[in-house]
Automatic annotation (TrEMBL), chains A, B:
Location relative to the cell: Cytoplasm
Protein function: Converts the preformed base xanthine, a product of nucleic acid breakdown, to xanthosine 5'-monophosphate (XMP), so it can be reused for RNA or DNA synthesis.
EC class (word): transferase
Annotated binding of 5-phospho-alpha-D-ribose 1-diphosphate, by residue: 129-133
Protein name, entry field: Xanthine phosphoribosyltransferase
InterPro entries to which the protein is assigned, alphabetical: PRTase-like, PRTase_dom, Pur/Pyrimidine_PRTase, Xanthine_PRibTrfase
Main localization, broad class: cytoplasm
UniProt entry tagged with the keyword 4Fe-4S: no
Family: Belongs to the purine/pyrimidine phosphoribosyltransferase family. Xpt subfamily.
GO biological process: purine ribonucleoside salvage; xanthine metabolic process; XMP salvage
This protein's pathway: Purine metabolism; XMP biosynthesis via salvage pathway; XMP from xanthine: step 1/1
Taxonomic placement: Bacteria, Bacillati, Bacillota, Erysipelotrichia, Erysipelotrichales
One GO molecular-function entry: xanthine phosphoribosyltransferase activity
Catalytic activity field: XMP + diphosphate = xanthine + 5-phospho-alpha-D-ribose 1-diphosphate
Length: 193, 193
């Protein structure tokens, strides 16, 4: 998505330790009209799929998922929650996700009420790097017996292994922008063609 | 908002310890078309105000705020973040918010880049009980020198003191539903007329 690449070049900040900050429109302040365009783009990219539910994870994925839902006929959005305790009840699907950014492992849950075997799920998230979050969400859908129809990502770090692993595993993954390289010394960012 | 009261009666679950769970449409699964109606209603309730920014707090407020933004001319949404460390930099406005639900105090921050003295802010959140979260968000706007034009809440627990204190302090507070009482034994919920 050309407009997203331009926005990243203009507003993104490359920080030490492989961090791209896009706080001006996605991760802290949200540019809602831009989210609208991203929602339209996801619909275009997954137009052949019958989606009954969008699954994301709190917190930054929620805005993107909600706006995308409008373009998929207002299907329900479910956001997986980071469990506050490791005391997981029988009423929940549970998976564990390693967080690269915060160097910890989160227990992530979805209530069994909101994900089931009839669901055809589009998984949406803001970033894809090593793929841990997405494989965790895929795991939750599979526990529920649902079908993962696709994975939609705003920004993929193409030089990390997540995208390759998800495509290799046979999932239909679409990223609105794929970063080929970035340099925190020069602030240079290049995108995959 | 009559439709919201009906939805709470139909789908809300009263739990021990003054907890109302609305996970089916707001706090876990999100009914996006219903969020759309709530966004329209907030616009109607604050139609005389010139709003330049919507401020909320992660995570459950984000969906409501993003959908409301559409009805206020796509103004930017900023979500305050729960700080992961108590190491707060100079680039952040910082406040502390006691969480009733999780019985802890959170350090909550907003980057100084995304809130400033030109901002006319509508604060939006999903629940209002003792008012701690809202007074924290008001504090952040005031630190930035901005103006709090209003506070929009989805569900106010009218029998707790938050709503009274915010109105008493002179803020324009609108809650889409105000619960007068609820009973976890009988599951009965009554609303303020």
């Amino acid at each position: 998505m050309k407009a997203l690449e331009e926005k990243i070049l203009k507003e993104g900040i490359v920080k030490e330790g492989n961090v791209l900050k896009v706080d001006s429109f996605l991760n802290h302040q949200i540019d809602v009209s831009f989210l609208e365009k991203m929602g339209e783009e996801f619909k275009e990219l997954f137009k052949d799929k019958k989606i009954t539910k969008i699954l994301t994870i709190e917190a930054s994925g929620i805005g993107v998922a909600v706006m995308a839902s409008r373009h998929f006929g207002y299907v329900p959005v479910v956001f997986a929650k980071k469990a506050k305790t490791s005391n997981i009840s029988d009423e929940l699907y549970h998976t564990r996700i390693d967080s690269y950014t915060h160097q910890k492992t989160n227990d992530v849950v979805v209530s069994k009420q909101y994900l089931n075997q009839d669901d055809h799920v589009l998984i949406i998230d803001d970033f894809l790097a090593n793929g841990c979050a997405i494989f965790g969400l895929i795991d939750l859908v599979q526990q529920a017996g649902g079908v993962v129809e696709g994975v939609g990502i705003v920004i993929e770090k193409g030089y990390q292994e997540g995208g390759h692993k998800i495509r290799e595993a046979g999932y239909h993954l679409e990223s609105l922008a794929i970063i080929e390289s970035m340099n925190d010394q020069t602030s240079e960012i290049t995108f995959r063609k």
